[in-house]
Automatic annotation (TrEMBL):
Protein name per its UniProtKB record: Alpha-aminoadipic semialdehyde synthase, mitochondrial
InterPro entries per record: AASS, AlaDH/PNT_N
SUPFAM superfamilies: Formate/glycerate dehydrogenase catalytic domain-like
SMART domains, per the entry: AlaDh_PNT_N
Top-level taxonomic group: Eukaryota
Annotated Alanine dehydrogenase/pyridine nucleotide transhydrogenase N-terminal domain residues: 34-164
Organism encoding this protein: Araneus ventricosus
GO cellular component: cytoplasm
Gene assigned in the entry: AASS_2
GO BP terms in the entry: lysine biosynthetic process via aminoadipic acid
MF-aspect GO terms: saccharopine dehydrogenase activity
Keyword terms, alphabetized: Oxidoreductase
Amino acid sequence: MWRFTRENKHFSSYVYKARSRVPQRWKSSGKVLAVRREDASVWERRAPIAPHHVKQLTKEGVKVLVQPSNRRAYPMQAYISAGAIIQEDISEAPVIIGVKQVPIDSLLPNKTYCFFSHTIKAQEANMPMLDCILERNIRLIDYEKLVDSKGQRVVAFGKFAGVAGIINILHGLGLRLLALGHHTPFMVTKIYLSLLKTLKHEF
């Protein structure tokens, strides 16, 4: 997501001047961006941008609001140190970014939202959300539809998302089989150590 916004300067035009009064301590160009708390799943720890992205944005005069969350991979203090403002109310921001789909009750009207909506293939479970987006005059920028000149997606999960998924599936299978009275190698945590070492080496 960050690479796309950096390479496509016109994307910043979606961040309009906020009408709310800005505290005097805040030196802003009038542009406001909000990072919403992920609530589609209790296991979700990802964030659309990291603290060092926030630091770059604030340096360029963008006011960044971050909804508080103790599940996010990055601690709230890291965002504060980067220049973000932690607060529950993000209605001031015309552009709100996240990772996964947004619950209907949390969709604010007349905003621009950026997230994986999982509606491109007409996924039935998310059609009510899409209907709500249309009804509330919301502009949706779906990461899945951001492509380069060759039609290749520029915002996508890497191979390690698949590795993490496999680990979760195997461990979940082990738990299920254990509940049925079967002991399997999937319950032995050291089976995943080589995968974990690979991840650490790559990062």
